[in-house]
Amino acid sequence: MQYQKSLLFVLVLMLSCLAVAQTQPPKTNKQRPTKHPTQFDKIIDAEEIPANQPVSPEKAESSSTPVKADPLASDALVQAVQSLTVEVKNLVNEVRSTNARQQVQTDILRLSRLDLRLDRYESELKTVRDRLALLETDYQNLQFLLTPEAIEAQVSRMPYANKSDAVRQVKESHEARLRSVAAERELVKRREGELAAVVTNFREASTETEKRLAAIEESLKKLAEIQEQSDKPKPDTPEKEQ
User: Fold this and answer.
1) Which residue, 34, 172, 192, 214, has most beta carbons within 10 Å?
2) pLDDT tens-digit map of 74-87
3) Which residues are CB-neighbours of 143 under 8 A, at least 6 positions away?
4) pLDDT greater than 60 at residue 229
5) Is the distance from CB of 230 to CB of 86 less than 8 angstroms?
6) pLDDT band at 174, cuts 50/70/90?
7) Do the beta carbons of residue 90 and residue 230 sit within 8 Å?
8) First and final CA of the chain: distance in angstroms?
9) Sign of the Cα pseudo-torsion (136, 138, 141, 143, in order)
């Protein structure tokens, strides 16, 4: 038992000395000779080959000759890269097609909304223009009724005690109505201009959306043609003569 403890102690001591020797940097200066030099530096690894051991010519030839690449492996690698490139292109085209279809759906929805709003504003614009036409007619008629000849004809057809008072009443009545028609005509004209601008903007937006839809449909056709060409099996190329 005591012998085993002594052997274990010696083994631990040797391992600690080996660890210390490996961690310390090598010294260039000469060291004093120790009384009991260690034998670790004389231990040769089984896998290491001494420098003075001659190398066999077979090993030298095998180490000097370059390793030839396998043509089958290189061809397989090229085919794999080409196949991966085709798959990536198809995936990119598929993503583009999906985005284009989503854009088409969005533009169609936008176009339908534009058409609905355009119809509503066009209907309102038509009503405003009809009202403006009536106001223009009333304004011109009132201006005509305010001429001296028209006032004279109106006064001659109505009973009056004093002609000047009758003329003044007829003129004031037509002038008051003319002011009312003129004010309403200005408001309707302003509204007509606003609605015309809105309708013009909606028509331009609708035209741009239709152009964009046509361009997207054309791009979808091109992507479909590219996909068909990529899906077609390529003819087998004849092997080159060795």
Assistant:
1) 192
2) 777 777 777 777 77
3) 178
4) yes
5) yes
6) very high
7) yes
8) 78
9) negative
Q: Where are the domains of the chain?
A: 85-231
Q: At what angle do helices 148-156 and 163-231 cross, to 10 degrees?
A: 120
> What residues have CB less than 8 Å from 182, skipping those under 6 apart?
139
Which residue type, as a one-letter code, is found at position 240?
K
Coil, helix or strand at residue 31: coil
**What does each C-alpha distance from 105 to 10, 100, 205, 217 come to in angstroms?**
85, 9, 16, 11
Amino acid at 22: Q
- In 3D space, the residue among 16, 21, 19, 44 whose CA is nearest the CA of residue 34 turns out to be 21
CATH number for the domain running over 85-231: 1.10.287.1490
Q: Identify the DSSP state of 40.
A: G
Q: Which of 96-110, 130-144, 145-159 has the lowest mean pLDDT?
A: 96-110
Tokens 């036409």 belong to residue = 133
Distance CA 73, CA 55 (A): 33
44 φ/ψ angles, rounded to the nearest 5 degrees = -110, 130
On whether the CB atoms of residues 107 and 212 are closer than 8 A, the answer is yes
Contacts (Cβ under 8 Å, ≥6 apart) of 128: 188, 191, 192, 195
